[in-house]
Amino acid sequence: MDRKIIHVDLDAFFCSVEELLDPSLIGVPFAVGGNTNGRGVVASASYAARQYGVRSAMPSNQALRLCPQLKFTHRSHHLYSDYSEKVMAVLRDYTPLFQQMSVDEAYLDVSDLRQSAESIARQIQARIDREIKLSTSMGVATNKLVAKLANDYGKSQVRTGRPPHAITVIEPGKEAKFLAPLDIQCMLGIGPKTAEKLRGRGIQTIGDLAAMDEKSLAPFFGNYALELKEKAMGISHSRVHFEHESQKSCSNETTFNSDSVDVNFLLDKLRSQAEKVGYRLRRDGLAGSVVQIKLRYSDFTTFTRQKELGILTNLDEEIYAAAADLFLNNLIHGRPVRLIGVGVSNLDSPHRQMGLWDDAFQEKSKLANAIDSLKDRYGKKIIQRASQLQKSKEIGHNGVDE
Question: Are 269 and 385 in contact, with CB atoms under 8 Å apart?
Protein backbone atom coordinates (compact mmCIF):
# COMPACT_ATOMS: atom_id res chain seq x y z
CA MET A 1 0.00 0.00 0.00
CA ASP A 2 1.29 3.44 -0.93
CA ARG A 3 2.06 5.76 1.95
CA LYS A 4 0.16 9.04 2.28
CA ILE A 5 2.45 11.86 3.40
CA ILE A 6 1.52 15.52 3.85
CA HIS A 7 4.12 18.28 4.10
CA VAL A 8 2.73 21.37 5.86
CA ASP A 9 4.40 24.76 5.56
CA LEU A 10 3.09 28.01 7.04
CA ASP A 11 3.21 30.77 4.41
CA ALA A 12 5.75 33.47 5.42
CA PHE A 13 5.03 32.50 9.00
CA PHE A 14 6.64 35.36 10.94
CA CYS A 15 5.18 37.94 8.57
CA SER A 16 1.75 36.28 8.66
CA VAL A 17 1.73 36.56 12.46
CA GLU A 18 2.72 40.23 12.17
CA GLU A 19 -0.13 40.88 9.71
CA LEU A 20 -2.57 39.07 11.97
CA LEU A 21 -1.60 41.26 14.94
CA ASP A 22 -1.30 44.44 12.84
CA PRO A 23 -3.64 44.36 9.80
CA SER A 24 -2.18 47.65 8.53
CA LEU A 25 0.82 45.61 7.34
CA ILE A 26 -1.26 43.57 4.89
CA GLY A 27 -0.07 44.29 1.35
CA VAL A 28 2.90 46.34 2.64
CA PRO A 29 6.52 45.37 1.82
CA PHE A 30 8.02 44.53 5.22
CA ALA A 31 10.44 42.10 6.84
CA VAL A 32 10.85 40.44 10.21
CA GLY A 33 14.43 40.70 11.43
CA GLY A 34 17.10 43.18 10.37
CA ASN A 35 16.57 46.93 10.61
CA THR A 36 16.70 50.20 8.65
CA ASN A 37 20.34 50.70 9.66
CA GLY A 38 21.23 47.78 7.43
CA ARG A 39 22.33 45.51 10.28
CA GLY A 40 21.23 41.91 10.70
CA VAL A 41 19.47 39.65 8.26
CA VAL A 42 15.91 39.17 7.09
CA ALA A 43 14.26 36.28 8.95
CA SER A 44 11.07 36.45 6.87
CA ALA A 45 9.86 38.71 4.05
CA SER A 46 6.22 39.52 3.35
CA TYR A 47 4.91 38.45 -0.03
CA ALA A 48 4.64 42.12 -1.02
CA ALA A 49 8.38 42.48 -0.26
CA ARG A 50 9.17 39.33 -2.23
CA GLN A 51 7.83 41.05 -5.32
CA TYR A 52 10.96 43.24 -5.08
CA GLY A 53 13.29 40.27 -4.67
CA VAL A 54 13.61 40.43 -0.87
CA ARG A 55 14.17 36.98 0.62
CA SER A 56 14.83 35.38 4.00
CA ALA A 57 18.51 35.18 5.06
CA MET A 58 19.26 38.27 2.97
CA PRO A 59 21.34 41.01 4.68
CA SER A 60 19.04 43.91 5.47
CA ASN A 61 21.24 46.44 3.63
CA GLN A 62 20.80 44.40 0.44
CA ALA A 63 17.06 44.15 1.08
CA LEU A 64 16.86 47.94 1.42
CA ARG A 65 18.66 48.42 -1.90
CA LEU A 66 16.07 46.22 -3.58
CA CYS A 67 13.14 47.83 -1.75
CA PRO A 68 13.98 51.26 -0.23
CA GLN A 69 10.51 51.57 1.33
CA LEU A 70 10.89 48.24 3.16
CA LYS A 71 9.64 48.28 6.75
CA PHE A 72 11.16 46.19 9.54
CA THR A 73 9.35 44.71 12.51
CA HIS A 74 10.00 42.07 15.16
CA ARG A 75 7.96 40.90 18.11
CA SER A 76 8.95 38.78 21.07
CA HIS A 77 9.96 35.27 20.06
CA HIS A 78 7.37 33.72 22.37
CA LEU A 79 4.52 35.20 20.30
CA TYR A 80 5.70 33.35 17.20
CA SER A 81 6.17 30.21 19.30
CA ASP A 82 2.63 30.52 20.66
CA TYR A 83 1.13 30.62 17.16
CA SER A 84 3.37 27.78 16.02
CA GLU A 85 2.21 25.63 18.91
CA LYS A 86 -1.44 26.33 18.05
CA VAL A 87 -0.86 25.09 14.50
CA MET A 88 1.10 22.03 15.61
CA ALA A 89 -1.69 21.14 18.08
CA VAL A 90 -4.13 21.04 15.16
CA LEU A 91 -1.81 18.76 13.17
CA ARG A 92 -1.42 16.38 16.12
CA ASP A 93 -5.19 15.90 16.17
CA TYR A 94 -5.02 14.02 12.87
CA THR A 95 -2.29 11.46 13.49
CA PRO A 96 0.37 10.50 16.04
CA LEU A 97 2.76 10.10 13.10
CA PHE A 98 3.71 13.75 13.23
CA GLN A 99 7.19 15.25 12.76
CA GLN A 100 7.75 18.96 13.41
CA MET A 101 10.77 20.20 11.47
CA SER A 102 10.74 23.84 12.61
CA VAL A 103 8.34 26.48 13.94
CA ASP A 104 6.56 26.60 10.58
CA GLU A 105 7.03 23.19 8.97
CA ALA A 106 5.93 19.62 9.67
CA TYR A 107 5.22 16.23 8.10
CA LEU A 108 2.19 14.00 8.68
CA ASP A 109 1.86 10.33 7.79
CA VAL A 110 -1.88 9.71 7.29
CA SER A 111 -1.51 6.29 5.64
CA ASP A 112 -3.77 4.65 8.23
CA LEU A 113 -6.67 7.06 7.65
CA ARG A 114 -9.42 6.09 5.22
CA GLN A 115 -9.78 9.48 3.56
CA SER A 116 -7.50 10.52 0.74
CA ALA A 117 -4.44 12.53 1.74
CA GLU A 118 -5.67 15.44 -0.39
CA SER A 119 -9.00 15.50 1.45
CA ILE A 120 -7.23 15.48 4.83
CA ALA A 121 -4.88 18.26 3.68
CA ARG A 122 -7.87 20.42 2.69
CA GLN A 123 -9.55 19.79 6.04
CA ILE A 124 -6.40 20.76 7.92
CA GLN A 125 -5.85 23.88 5.81
CA ALA A 126 -9.46 25.01 6.31
CA ARG A 127 -9.28 24.39 10.05
CA ILE A 128 -6.09 26.41 10.46
CA ASP A 129 -7.66 29.18 8.36
CA ARG A 130 -10.74 29.19 10.56
CA GLU A 131 -9.27 28.70 14.03
CA ILE A 132 -5.87 30.40 13.81
CA LYS A 133 -6.26 32.68 10.78
CA LEU A 134 -2.88 31.74 9.30
CA SER A 135 -2.23 30.65 5.72
CA THR A 136 -0.68 27.26 5.03
CA SER A 137 0.47 25.45 1.90
CA MET A 138 0.74 21.68 1.59
CA GLY A 139 2.40 19.04 -0.52
CA VAL A 140 0.87 15.57 -0.78
CA ALA A 141 2.77 12.51 -2.04
CA THR A 142 3.85 8.96 -1.22
CA ASN A 143 7.04 10.04 0.58
CA LYS A 144 8.53 12.97 2.46
CA LEU A 145 10.95 14.01 -0.27
CA VAL A 146 8.34 14.38 -3.01
CA ALA A 147 5.79 15.94 -0.63
CA LYS A 148 8.32 18.63 0.32
CA LEU A 149 9.34 19.35 -3.28
CA ALA A 150 5.68 19.37 -4.35
CA ASN A 151 4.94 22.00 -1.72
CA ASP A 152 7.95 24.10 -2.73
CA TYR A 153 6.87 23.89 -6.37
CA GLY A 154 3.24 24.72 -5.67
CA LYS A 155 4.16 27.77 -3.61
CA SER A 156 6.60 28.99 -6.27
CA GLN A 157 3.86 29.05 -8.91
CA VAL A 158 1.88 31.71 -7.05
CA ARG A 159 3.26 35.19 -7.76
CA THR A 160 0.38 37.43 -6.72
CA GLY A 161 2.11 39.17 -3.81
CA ARG A 162 -0.24 37.30 -1.47
CA PRO A 163 0.24 34.03 0.49
CA PRO A 164 0.04 31.09 -1.96
CA HIS A 165 -2.32 28.97 0.20
CA ALA A 166 -1.58 26.09 -2.19
CA ILE A 167 -2.16 22.34 -2.05
CA THR A 168 -0.08 20.37 -4.55
CA VAL A 169 -0.78 16.66 -4.99
CA ILE A 170 1.52 14.15 -6.70
CA GLU A 171 -0.37 10.95 -7.44
CA PRO A 172 1.26 7.56 -6.73
CA GLY A 173 3.39 6.43 -9.63
CA LYS A 174 3.90 9.96 -10.97
CA GLU A 175 6.77 10.98 -8.68
CA ALA A 176 9.55 10.69 -11.30
CA LYS A 177 7.46 12.49 -13.92
CA PHE A 178 6.86 15.38 -11.53
CA LEU A 179 10.52 15.68 -10.54
CA ALA A 180 12.03 15.29 -14.02
CA PRO A 181 11.66 18.90 -15.30
CA LEU A 182 12.64 20.57 -12.01
CA ASP A 183 15.96 22.42 -11.86
CA ILE A 184 18.79 20.32 -10.46
CA GLN A 185 19.20 22.64 -7.48
CA CYS A 186 15.65 21.91 -6.32
CA MET A 187 16.88 18.48 -5.21
CA LEU A 188 17.49 18.39 -1.47
CA GLY A 189 21.19 17.90 -0.75
CA ILE A 190 22.47 19.66 -3.88
CA GLY A 191 23.89 23.10 -3.15
CA PRO A 192 24.88 25.90 -5.54
CA LYS A 193 28.49 24.74 -6.04
CA THR A 194 27.55 21.13 -6.78
CA ALA A 195 24.74 22.29 -9.06
CA GLU A 196 27.22 24.45 -10.99
CA LYS A 197 29.54 21.48 -11.50
CA LEU A 198 26.66 19.27 -12.64
CA ARG A 199 25.46 21.90 -15.10
CA GLY A 200 28.99 21.94 -16.49
CA ARG A 201 28.43 18.28 -17.35
CA GLY A 202 25.10 19.03 -19.03
CA ILE A 203 22.96 17.95 -16.05
CA GLN A 204 20.33 20.67 -15.82
CA THR A 205 17.29 18.93 -14.33
CA ILE A 206 16.43 16.26 -11.79
CA GLY A 207 15.40 14.12 -14.73
CA ASP A 208 18.91 14.42 -16.16
CA LEU A 209 20.25 13.27 -12.79
CA ALA A 210 17.88 10.29 -12.69
CA ALA A 211 19.05 9.21 -16.15
CA MET A 212 22.71 8.99 -15.08
CA ASP A 213 24.22 5.73 -13.89
CA GLU A 214 25.70 5.36 -10.42
CA LYS A 215 29.27 5.17 -11.74
CA SER A 216 28.95 8.59 -13.44
CA LEU A 217 27.55 10.15 -10.26
CA ALA A 218 30.22 8.72 -7.95
CA PRO A 219 32.84 11.46 -8.65
CA PHE A 220 30.30 14.06 -7.44
CA PHE A 221 28.60 12.21 -4.59
CA GLY A 222 30.75 9.21 -3.62
CA ASN A 223 28.83 6.64 -1.57
CA TYR A 224 25.76 8.89 -1.71
CA ALA A 225 25.44 8.43 -5.51
CA LEU A 226 22.99 5.52 -5.52
CA GLU A 227 20.74 7.09 -2.89
CA LEU A 228 20.69 10.38 -4.80
CA LYS A 229 19.81 8.63 -8.05
CA GLU A 230 16.89 6.93 -6.31
CA LYS A 231 15.72 10.25 -4.90
CA ALA A 232 15.90 11.80 -8.37
CA MET A 233 13.53 9.02 -9.46
CA GLY A 234 11.15 9.92 -6.63
CA ILE A 235 12.12 7.00 -4.39
CA SER A 236 12.61 7.71 -0.68
CA HIS A 237 12.02 5.52 2.36
CA SER A 238 12.57 8.16 5.05
CA ARG A 239 9.87 7.78 7.68
CA VAL A 240 7.92 10.37 9.61
CA HIS A 241 9.38 10.33 13.11
CA PHE A 242 7.43 10.59 16.32
CA GLU A 243 7.58 14.00 18.04
CA HIS A 244 11.12 14.45 19.45
CA GLU A 245 12.86 11.62 17.62
CA SER A 246 14.29 14.04 15.05
CA GLN A 247 15.03 16.94 17.39
CA LYS A 248 18.79 17.01 17.76
CA SER A 249 19.46 20.37 19.38
CA CYS A 250 17.97 23.49 20.94
CA SER A 251 19.63 26.88 20.53
CA ASN A 252 19.24 30.64 20.69
CA GLU A 253 21.37 33.30 19.03
CA THR A 254 21.35 37.08 18.64
CA THR A 255 22.70 39.43 15.98
CA PHE A 256 23.55 42.81 17.55
CA ASN A 257 22.55 46.16 16.09
CA SER A 258 26.09 47.35 16.89
CA ASP A 259 29.18 45.16 17.35
CA SER A 260 30.35 44.74 20.94
CA VAL A 261 33.71 44.25 22.67
CA ASP A 262 32.11 44.45 26.13
CA VAL A 263 32.84 41.08 27.75
CA ASN A 264 30.37 41.62 30.60
CA PHE A 265 27.59 42.51 28.16
CA LEU A 266 28.35 39.43 26.07
CA LEU A 267 28.33 37.20 29.17
CA ASP A 268 24.96 38.69 30.18
CA LYS A 269 23.65 37.87 26.71
CA LEU A 270 24.98 34.30 27.04
CA ARG A 271 23.18 33.95 30.37
CA SER A 272 19.91 35.20 28.89
CA GLN A 273 20.25 32.78 25.97
CA ALA A 274 21.06 29.88 28.33
CA GLU A 275 17.86 30.65 30.23
CA LYS A 276 15.82 30.61 27.01
CA VAL A 277 17.36 27.33 25.90
CA GLY A 278 16.84 25.77 29.34
CA TYR A 279 13.20 26.89 29.36
CA ARG A 280 12.52 25.36 25.93
CA LEU A 281 14.20 22.09 26.89
CA ARG A 282 12.15 21.78 30.08
CA ARG A 283 8.97 22.70 28.20
CA ASP A 284 9.65 19.91 25.68
CA GLY A 285 10.69 17.35 28.30
CA LEU A 286 14.27 17.17 27.04
CA ALA A 287 17.85 17.57 28.29
CA GLY A 288 21.23 17.48 26.58
CA SER A 289 24.82 16.56 27.35
CA VAL A 290 26.67 18.86 24.89
CA VAL A 291 26.77 22.67 25.19
CA GLN A 292 27.87 24.74 22.20
CA ILE A 293 28.55 28.43 21.61
CA LYS A 294 28.64 30.33 18.34
CA LEU A 295 30.54 33.59 17.78
CA ARG A 296 30.56 35.79 14.70
CA TYR A 297 32.95 38.74 14.59
CA SER A 298 32.42 42.04 12.76
CA ASP A 299 34.24 40.73 9.67
CA PHE A 300 31.73 37.81 9.56
CA THR A 301 34.36 35.28 10.69
CA THR A 302 32.33 32.65 12.54
CA PHE A 303 33.33 29.76 14.77
CA THR A 304 31.64 27.29 17.12
CA ARG A 305 33.01 25.46 20.14
CA GLN A 306 31.37 22.72 22.17
CA LYS A 307 31.83 20.95 25.47
CA GLU A 308 30.72 17.44 26.52
CA LEU A 309 29.29 17.66 30.04
CA GLY A 310 29.13 13.94 30.83
CA ILE A 311 25.61 14.46 32.24
CA LEU A 312 22.23 15.40 30.82
CA THR A 313 21.00 18.85 31.83
CA ASN A 314 18.27 21.37 31.09
CA LEU A 315 19.19 23.71 33.94
CA ASP A 316 19.98 27.33 33.05
CA GLU A 317 22.95 27.62 35.40
CA GLU A 318 24.66 24.49 34.13
CA ILE A 319 24.15 25.48 30.51
CA TYR A 320 25.44 28.99 31.20
CA ALA A 321 28.47 27.76 33.16
CA ALA A 322 29.60 25.58 30.26
CA ALA A 323 28.86 28.31 27.68
CA ALA A 324 30.72 30.98 29.67
CA ASP A 325 33.73 28.70 30.05
CA LEU A 326 33.83 28.09 26.29
CA PHE A 327 33.39 31.80 25.60
CA LEU A 328 36.13 33.03 27.95
CA ASN A 329 38.60 30.41 26.73
CA ASN A 330 38.06 31.16 23.04
CA LEU A 331 37.21 34.87 22.78
CA ILE A 332 39.70 37.10 20.98
CA HIS A 333 39.63 40.12 23.30
CA GLY A 334 39.18 43.50 21.66
CA ARG A 335 37.71 42.00 18.49
CA PRO A 336 34.11 43.26 17.95
CA VAL A 337 31.43 40.56 18.16
CA ARG A 338 28.46 40.73 15.78
CA LEU A 339 26.55 37.58 16.78
CA ILE A 340 26.57 35.25 19.75
CA GLY A 341 24.63 32.07 20.42
CA VAL A 342 24.19 29.14 22.81
CA GLY A 343 22.95 25.64 22.01
CA VAL A 344 22.45 22.27 23.69
CA SER A 345 22.59 19.01 21.73
CA ASN A 346 22.72 15.23 22.17
CA LEU A 347 19.17 15.41 23.53
CA ASP A 348 17.32 12.78 25.52
CA SER A 349 14.64 12.58 28.18
CA PRO A 350 15.98 14.19 31.37
CA HIS A 351 17.54 11.71 33.78
CA ARG A 352 20.67 11.72 35.90
CA GLN A 353 22.61 9.15 37.91
CA MET A 354 22.32 10.47 41.47
CA GLY A 355 24.54 9.90 44.48
CA LEU A 356 22.87 8.76 47.71
CA TRP A 357 23.10 12.19 49.35
CA ASP A 358 23.02 14.33 46.22
CA ASP A 359 19.71 16.17 46.13
CA ALA A 360 21.04 19.52 44.83
CA PHE A 361 20.02 18.69 41.26
CA GLN A 362 16.46 17.89 42.35
CA GLU A 363 16.22 21.15 44.28
CA LYS A 364 17.50 23.15 41.30
CA SER A 365 15.03 21.36 39.03
CA LYS A 366 12.14 22.20 41.36
CA LEU A 367 13.18 25.86 41.41
CA ALA A 368 13.53 25.99 37.60
CA ASN A 369 10.09 24.41 37.14
CA ALA A 370 8.55 26.86 39.61
CA ILE A 371 10.04 29.80 37.69
CA ASP A 372 8.79 28.29 34.41
CA SER A 373 5.28 28.13 35.85
CA LEU A 374 5.42 31.82 36.76
CA LYS A 375 6.66 32.71 33.28
CA ASP A 376 3.93 30.65 31.63
CA ARG A 377 1.29 32.33 33.75
CA TYR A 378 2.49 35.92 33.86
CA GLY A 379 4.88 36.24 30.90
CA LYS A 380 8.56 35.61 30.23
CA LYS A 381 9.67 38.89 31.84
CA ILE A 382 8.04 38.31 35.22
CA ILE A 383 11.43 37.25 36.65
CA GLN A 384 14.65 38.91 35.48
CA ARG A 385 18.13 39.29 36.88
CA ALA A 386 19.16 42.75 38.06
CA SER A 387 21.95 42.77 35.46
CA GLN A 388 19.39 42.14 32.69
CA LEU A 389 17.22 45.02 33.87
CA GLN A 390 20.23 47.33 33.82
CA LYS A 391 21.33 46.21 30.36
CA SER A 392 17.83 46.63 28.96
CA LYS A 393 18.18 50.35 29.68
CA GLU A 394 21.33 50.63 27.60
CA ILE A 395 21.07 51.77 24.01
CA GLY A 396 22.91 50.26 21.06
CA HIS A 397 23.46 46.67 22.18
CA ASN A 398 19.96 45.38 21.63
CA GLY A 399 19.87 42.87 18.80
CA VAL A 400 17.64 40.45 16.99
CA ASP A 401 17.06 37.02 18.50
CA GLU A 402 17.03 34.41 15.81
Answer: no
Single out the catalytic residue among 105, 230, 243, 402. 105
18 in catalytic set? no
For residue 140, being part of any structural domain is answered with no
**311: pLDDT confidence band, cut at 50, 70 and 90?**
confident
What's the pLDDT at 216? 84
Reported as a single tens digit per residue, the pLDDT across 98-117 is 888 888 999 999 998 989 99
SS3 (DSSP) at 321: helix
Strand partners, 401: 254
- Give just the sign of the alpha carbon dihedral 127, 132, 134, 140: negative
392 and 259 co-located in one domain = yes
Count of domains forming the chain? 3
Q: Are residues 251 and 378 in the same domain?
A: yes
Residues in contact with 152: Cβ distance below 8 Å, sequence separation at least 6, in sequence order = 139, 186
Contacts of 165 (CB under 8 A, 6+ apart): 11, 125, 135, 136, 137, 158
Q: What φ, ψ does residue 12 adopt, rounded to 5°?
A: 40, 60
Query: pLDDT tens digits, residue range 314-332?
Result: 999 999 999 999 999 889 9
Q: Which residue has the higher pLDDT, 188 or 229?
A: 229
- DSSP state string for 274-319: HHHHHHHHHHTT-EEEEEEEEEEETT--EEEEEEEEEEEE--HHHH
DSSP for 81-126 reads: HHHHHHHHHHHHTT-S-EEEEETTEEEEE-TTSSS-HHHHHHHHHH
Residue 51 DSSP code: T
Task: Decide if 385 is inside a domain.
Answer: yes
Q: What percent of the chain is predicted at pLDDT more than 90?
A: 53
